[in-house]
Each structure stands twice: as C-alpha cells, then as structure tokens.
Amino acid sequence: MVEWKRVNITFPTVKLDQFIEPVKKTIAETKGDDYSTVYGVTNTEGITVTGKKTSKDISKYIVIDEGCFAYNPYRINVGSIGFNDKGLKGCVSSAYVVFKTRAGFNPEFLFLYLKSDFGNHLINWYGNRGGVRNALRYDDLCKIDVPKIDINEQSILLKKIKRIESSVIEFNSGIDSQLAILKQLRQAVLQEAIEGKLTSDWRKEHSELISGENHASKLLEKIKSEKEKLIKEGKIRKDKLLSPIADNEKPFDLPNGWVWARLGDLVSILGDGLHGTPNYTNNGEYFFINGNNLNEGEILIKDHTKRVSLDEYNRHKKELTDKTVLVSINGTLGNVAFYNNEKIILGKSACYFNLLTGTSKHYIKQIIKTKYFIIYASDKASETTIKNLSLKGMRMFLVPLPSIVEQQIIIERVDKLMAMIDELEKQVTDRKSRSEMLMQSVLREVFSR
Fold this sequence. Notes:
Adenine-n6-DNA-methyltransferase TaqI, Chain A, domain 2; 4-stranded antiparallel beta sheet
C-alpha cells in the first residue's frame, strides 16, 4: 500500500479545475458493443481488466475513451488511478470518477504528477475526510494544486522524464528478473529437500541412522501404533481406512531410508473450520480466522479481522495444540501457519491437522510450500470459480517421509539456505527502491522548476 507521502510544495501552482472536465457519458448513450468491456483500476497496472464480478446491468457504467483518466474515489489515495493512453474502449463502474484534460495541460504530464509524491500528498490532503473513510470526489480533485507550467514547457519536460523513466524501467526489469530467479531458487531448494537430494551426503556419512530401526518405515509403524492406541482409548475418532499407495501415484523416487505416507496416516485429527458466519462482536477477545490469515508459519491477526465472544468461541472451537498445522484450502491454496495459543476460531478455508509423534511440523510446512503440493492441491481442487481442496484431498496427500533425525537435518539446511536467499532478495529489492527514489527525485526536480 502506498503511504501518504507528506511533502512541501514551494513552487508556483494553479488549481486543477481549470484544466479538466468530468466524463459522464454512459453505456446507455452508446450504440453497439464497442464499449462493453468492463475495466477497473489498480495501483500497478492502471486501467485494466481486473476480473472482478460486475453488475449484470452495465447501462449506467461510464464510457472511457483514449485520453480519459479513471479512479475509484476510495482507492486513489493508494495510487489507484489510470490514464488511458493505449486506445482502450470500454467502461467502468458508475462508482468511478472519470475525467479528461482540456487544452492547455498535457494529460501525460498530469498523470505523472498525480502519481508523484506531490500528487500523492495532495490526493490524501484533499481526500482526507476526518474520521470518515477517505475519498477524493471530483470536486476534491478540482482543488488539487498543479505546477504553473505552460503546455509547451510541459512537453519538453515530459521528454526528459521519459528518457530517465526508460532507463529506470530497463534497470528494474533486470531486478525483476533477478527476483524471479531467486523465487525459482527457493522452490528448487524445497524440492531438493523433500526428494532427499539436499541430504544425500549426510545419509552416506550416517547410514546407521536411516536403516534398521531408524528406517522411516519403522517410524511410520510407530505413528500408526500411536494412532490406534489413541482410538482405543477413545481420545480420537477412527477415520475411514485410506487406500494403499499405488506405484503410479508416486510423483518421484525416494532415497533409501524414506517411505511414502498419506497425510491422513500422520495425524490424529484433520478438519476445517465453520461453514457459515459466526455471530460477531466488536469487543470480543477471540478472532475469526480464515486461510488469508495464514502466512509463513504464523497466524496474522489483521485490523479488520472479525471478533467473536467467549460463548461463540466455545460453540465453534477446535482441538488445536502445539502440533497443529493450519493450511488454506479455499481460494488461495497453500498458505500455512502453526497454532501458538492464539484466541481463534476457524473458518472453512482453514484446514487444521494435529501431527502425531515422529513428524515435524516444520518439515511438513516445507512440503506445503513446494510446487509439488500446490500442483497437487490445484489438480484435486473442485472446478468452481474459487478453488476448494476437500478434506479428503488433504488426507490422501502423499508425504515423502524420512527418519526423525533426517527431518531435522533437512529443516536446518533449508533454513540456512533460505536465510541466504532472504539476504540476496533484500539486496535486490533495496536496489529497486533506490531506483524508484531516483525517479521520484527527478519528478520533484521537474515539478519544482
């Protein structure tokens, strides 16, 4: 999210209202289907097809042609404004503000100004409505102060900006390529880890720790025995027997000392959260969590996370322990977190399972973060608008299982390599931030003439 970048404006200005006019033409006023494509606006792509659900009746949607600006009054404060310089023909929701420039102001120059730190400051200043949600109406937009520079000089300055912008874009493209390579490297490390390739040297040096009683098949027997004991004691419910693992199910070969196991055989319980909406309360001590609250091993309690009362918690609580792993199975697949005594109840997009002794939750997290799991989850997910992986799909998931000792070695090696990749990513993103700061510095110099 773009922050409010407060800056001092010391250059001569004029109000924007004398250079712009609103666009209010609707689809109902057009003929044919030339404008039937519905667009939205994002802070990264500008005017674009967002894929969000639209109204069945778009007759009141506002037409956009080349040269039009469009923004959502409630989103422009985070940089979501678009300028149609690509000849797009379509429409946007009637909730949007659409306008264009009059003669006397270069629209490209105006767009760069509104996207600059100066523009960000003024948009937030005039859109600030006190305690009410910020919104920049068209009347507020008209109050914005723009540089008092004639259109001929604007064109000269625009050429200068574009030359520098082109260099910055080329530089950032190289940085984006580096970040993509580092992302691929993360996946390669995780895949090598769960295939046993990351610890092949360790196994050669410690063959006694992967054979005999230390073989993963013995570990799996102990896990199954523990589960049967808990069932007999009435502490957990007996699940349906999972089908044997066929050879054609195995996605890759495992090294000596490892075995395949279904996730359902490694857990005492596996379920999901509430299929419905709890009764919310503003001052409740407990939070209603879904898959989007799970991130890199942690449960994120956000400002807008809904709260529930103690009674509602007691009505919907699940058996969560220090062995609980949470995974998003609806919408975004594969977000993962551990339970750490947070005061929560779960929604249906959060699957939870409690691991039995002998399987590390940190090792399971590494598996969930691989493309292997994401591809499996996507393939097994129901074919609806929002992907949904069933609990059966989770139980049937194949886990490449090494010995307890090797699991720990894998965790340590992966953590060490990921820390190195984190540092490389930081260096790359710092360079990108500096290039963006350079561009803003250029814009400040231009607009302050």
